[in-house]
Task: structure prediction
Amino acid sequence: MLTVISKRLTQLVPTLFFVSVLIFGLQHLLPGDPALVMAGEERDPVVIEQIRRQYRLDQPIPVQYLHWVRGVLSGDLGESMRLKEPVLDLVRQKLPVTLQLAVMSMIVALVLGVTLGILSAVYRGRTLDHLVNVVGLAGISTPNFWLGIMMILFFAVELGWLPASGYVSPFEDWRQSLATTIMPAFVLGNSIAGVIMRHTRSAMIQALDSDYVRTARAKGLSEGSVVLKHAMRNALTPVITLGALEFGTLLSGAVLTEQIFSIPGFGKLIVDAVFNRDYAVVQGVVLVTATTYIALNLLADIGYILVNPRLRA
Amino acid sequence: MRSILAAGAIAIAALGLAPTHASAQSTLRIGLAEDPDVLDPTLARTYVGRIVFASICDKLFDIDAKLNIVPQLALSHETSADGREVTIKLRPNVRFHDGEPMDAKAVKFSLDRHLGMQGSFRRSELSVVDAIEVVDPTTVRLKLKAPFAPLLATLTDRAGMMVSPKAAEAAGDRFGAAPVCAGPYRFVERVQQDRIVVERFADYWDKDKVSIDRIVYRPIADSTVRLANLKAGQLDLIERPLATDVPEIKKDRNLTLQSVTELGYQGMTLNVANGDAAKNPLGQSAKVRRALELAIDRDAINQVTFNGLFTPANQWVAPDNAWYDKRNPVPGRDVAAAKKLLAEAGVKASLAIDFMVPNNPETRQVAEVIQAMAAEAGFDMKIRVVEFATGLSEAEQGRYQAFMLAWSGRPDPDGNIYSFAKTNGPLNYGKFSSPDLDQALEESRTATTREGRKAAYDKVADVWLKDGSVIYLYHRAMLIAHTNKLKGFTLLPDGMVRVVGLKMN
Result:
């Protein structure tokens, strides 16, 4: 067990190295000069030169890369050119926001997706199944930005129940926090719920058709017990894998949704940074996201090993 | 359906999620179109940042609705006969937010900081200042390298914002994280991309006119969502709603819309001498450039794209501006004359132009209208949409023939023309150069009377509007929408939200 984990951890090092080179390289392939973008309308050639020197933009890319890596290894992700703030502070500010939104979206997605998936499998071929399928497909195919704006117009402008956008931390006021995140969490969760629903449905259908379920029924178990205790347990394994992957994606920031609801998370931060060629911010955020993603995968792998002894070899 | 809605309402009420409105403190919530950059007057560069500065950092001078320069932290000024010395009398007993005195020493410190700090975007604006002298605690004297007519106008913007020397020295280049100035509101907190909060400064020099307790600035990039927040009562004022949303705002009885012609312009910059791309009839012949101008119907652009809300432009200032050259009104469209000019310039076949356009829906639409109009005169405008940062680099390196470029505008005409038309000016993307024009531009800066300056600008117009490398298209309308609960707001041409005198009912 320990050897497997340590093997995984050693693989982590080259993966992160590869990711870091990729981020840095791709970033510098983008056309556009950060110093010019930063100066904007104030084009003083002397100052533009100063900015280039200050942020080492005048040095060869490998030198810039080494400087950045040295900083990262000592816990310094650099400074935002646009905001003059350490990238680490920005990440600390945004990560909890993105995390909260991701967790809430995942809850919405799992509750909706799994429930509807099971219902649809149990009532296979009947009206409810068709209805759930239509709803699921609608969920997958509705663009987030459209659903988001419609929800704002309905729940905030028409009915006045919820704040139209913005964000309040749960530590400040949990009610307001819930109020500001419930719509974006629903929008994000909704699209994932559709996918989870379809996976749950097919896994459940397979499980319900299997021999052990027939045996369980033959033993005279109640239908509820058959579905929830026997079939669902087995059917959920692929759903959990899918959920973990989707959760990783959510952590990298939901750009459009954050933009619409003005949620100050990773997505907004990185979009602004890319357009402003704020290299340090893009690199920092992508590195943190990639590391989290890899760590989640590692945890999932360890989880499988724990559950399935056959993988321990 | 109704029962579901009722159940939802009850659930939301029970949880206490419904938006809270009333509180004992009065708060003004302002929706910004972008997230401001660093809040340090020396290092800041965005338009939206200036809107926030309007509440926290007072300036030596300000502008009024007619663009006259009026004192703010200054009381009066006097320029020496040779124009090389400007003596500024300061308002007495003014304090910064940290209680430090805003006196002549602080003014000298702030101006020296603008001039000498690494990465200062104010350096070029004040480069004519040779030395700053403290005459007495309420008097400073600016010694200039040469007479400079736009100086006071420069001091109505960030270059005129004074910072607390104590706070600035302590914070260094991190001053923008918690700016300490002498405005009506003091900085409280900023959460990047979420909010900037300021609260009333009790010792403000004009405190009787400040009645709102707090101001919260919230960047909301999407204009539909910004407007939705205003309609839902989550915001009290929004800047820059879309021109296409104007009818909807006007229809809403709870909202007021204010509109004023901007100080800047949207234009088309033509490459006349910047690299190989300039070596074509458009770059080489003023006749071809005028033919392109004659092919364009500015009125039609305004009607089709902006519901007629904007102002057609043909100069660097708007037609209602005192510096506008009335001898050269906005020309109408004349395709026959355009064709004739092209023939005179020896252009026979359709002339292909690499037309670089920044990626935003409005600009793209304007470009397409221009493309259609120019085609009728014999131009083949090949639109190349680029993202903003890329566009800047391409323009700098001369990889374009025509480039749609907007300028946010300055109160003094110098800010709209000098750097764009002067040989090797930092904003002269087309690399236009004319000794006569350069001389007229210098005269416009050194002239000591208004008449002298006007005469110099007429000379500038004679060259620039005939041969120049910018075709001006339109002046946008600065739009601000606010709830009727907000009283006392007047929109000036710079689009700023001035907070002194505002009241929330």
Q: What stands out?
A: The CA atoms of residues 168 and 174 of chain A lie 8 Å apart. The two ends of chain A are 8 Å apart (CA to CA). Residues 87-122 of chain A form the longest helix (36 residues).
